[in-house]
Inverse folding.
């Protein structure tokens, strides 16, 4: 692949997304994107005893479904890359054990879906593996008690807070089979830290990371917002995406017309999620349903997905440290002739 | 790169390790490998207020030192890959922020050093980046309180327990510059779970993962232990490496002559670490000092490093789940003519 700048690379092989699967929970399934998701789980625990076991079950279901949807068996998959928000990426590890696939655990918080596409397509680019499974997800109730408070505590949510998406997005990417959707370029994020220490205010923490990656990508590809049908950030929420628009405007880029945030669009305003969705499952499930379907039909021809991650450690946060953030960008082309 | 089997790949480009740096704490610096380490830190807190901040400082020091040792500046490094044992890989993220390099966070627990070499060399193989920084580490006191008990609790250690290594190993790998040490093959691990639920008994949990990866590599490359000067596992400790020897003997492979375990050899028996060292910093620091130096001189010509990781989530462990484990293998060739 070709290095276009410090952060941006252009793939030389055609890397096709041959299947995508977006599975979400009930609340997400009642939002504006309900008709796009492949599966909606109404039981938050999916019949399991704990939220963590439910998260794992979502992963089992989505990864098995996407492999079936690609008309492959798990023996055809050469490599599984991905992660989740649970400490030690334990959901992904149980799934890797279940699938018995070679596995590389990735973690960049809510930027893990684009990180998976970046690592997966780089492996495909070498000509070594032919089919790679990428999957990422999160579960509201499991994440809340790990990162903030147990639900039983009943804490009041801040007006600038976001709601961790219960959902898993999974994709099979391939050089062996072709599809109308390709991964063509990516930009690897740099960690930015703007001094935010409030673990509820993730949009403000992550917006500078998104700005850094997106503006660098524009510079290194000599393009701007007008060259794309859609620019989607992962989970900045309403507040964070407003901050991003301001930051990009300062750099001379206008995000008023073709920009969305997956977290902002996954919930309706009357669903009481404050600024919208967040979590590794947010951009993963929205990309693998809403965005992917429109790339497949050719309604979107060029899309940039910038998943945003807040590397929010409760330990270092309690020690007064601010929240480092990262954003990885992947460029997709849709409606491609096979 | 060429796929040799389900898990094994052969690199086609010469990927050189142009610098390595092994930094450890005082206890490790009093062990049998003391003359090999590049730096020994006598203060467990390195002048910081907390163990977590000390871990971060070790990373700053080792990554800066390895870049200097490669006679490069940080602007010459295209990509930083790696992780640590802290939740959210927070030490690595702060270092990535400090270095301002494109960063991909990796997590396979104590198998993260070999995972970094695998991902880093795959990126180099594409011809995109030219110099990649790989780094992994751990800190005894930070890890103990996150995974088991705070030190102040003063719990009695089990006879089969291991001691998390305080140390960081960092390497710069390159296609642009050549050295006498190359990464030539690797095998990506599969997650195995043999039902161990005791968070102190990591050697027993991880030995089957090491067996699975090593025996698969032997099969897929049509080689056996006699084809290598050294076979080193990451941190099985004495008990775990004895289990591995038994498991490999059952498969027809004899590990009695040229096999070591980094965890077993990093401490002396009178240092009260029970079965020896563990942690992401264990194979990272031992490889980047002892093993790398002997590859550079050509004393070792072919080495297999199999870092072993226990994906030990305290949450799922308390829910009765067993510990999934993984092992990634990297093959190095030393004394190569540049």
């Amino acid at each position: 692949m070709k290095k276009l700048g410090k952060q941006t690379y252009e793939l030389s092989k055609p890397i096709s997304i041959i299947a995508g699967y977006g599975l979400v929970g009930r609340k997400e399934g009642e939002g504006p994107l309900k008709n796009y998701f492949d599966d909606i789980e109404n039981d938050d625990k999916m019949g399991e005893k704990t939220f963590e076991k439910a998260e794992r079950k979502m992963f089992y279901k989505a990864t098995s479904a996407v492999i079936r949807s690609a008309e492959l068996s798990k023996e055809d998959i050469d490599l599984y890359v991905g992660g989740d928000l649970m400490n030690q990426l334990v959901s992904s590890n149980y799934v890797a054990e279940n699938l018995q696939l070679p596995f590389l655990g990735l973690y960049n918080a809510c930027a893990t879906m684009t990180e998976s596409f970046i690592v997966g397509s780089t492996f495909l680019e070498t000509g070594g593996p032919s089919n790679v499974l990428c999957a990422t997800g999160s579960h509201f109730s499991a994440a809340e008690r790990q990162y903030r408070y147990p639900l039983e505590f009943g804490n009041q949510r801040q007006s600038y807070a976001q709601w961790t998406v219960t959902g898993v997005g999974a994709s099979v990417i391939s050089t062996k089979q072709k599809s109308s959707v390709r991964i063509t370029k990516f930009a690897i994020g740099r960690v930015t830290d703007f001094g935010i220490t409030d673990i509820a205010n993730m949009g403000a923490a992550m917006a500078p990371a998104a700005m850094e990656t997106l503006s660098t990508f524009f510079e290194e590809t000599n393009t701007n917002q007008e060259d794309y049908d859609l620019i989607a950030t992962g989970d900045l929420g309403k507040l964070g995406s407003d901050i991003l628009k301001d930051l990009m405007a300062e750099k001379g880029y206008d995000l008023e017309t073709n920009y969305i945030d997956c977290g902002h669009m996954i919930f309706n305003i009357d669903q009481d999620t404050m600024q919208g969705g967040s979590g590794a499952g947010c951009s993963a499930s929205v990309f693998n349903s809403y965005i992917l379907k429109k790339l497949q039909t050719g309604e979107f021809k060029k899309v940039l997905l910038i998943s945003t991650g807040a590397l929010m450690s409760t330990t270092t946060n309690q020690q007064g440290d601010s929240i480092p953030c990262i954003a990885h960008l992947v460029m997709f082309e849709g409606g491609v002739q096979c």
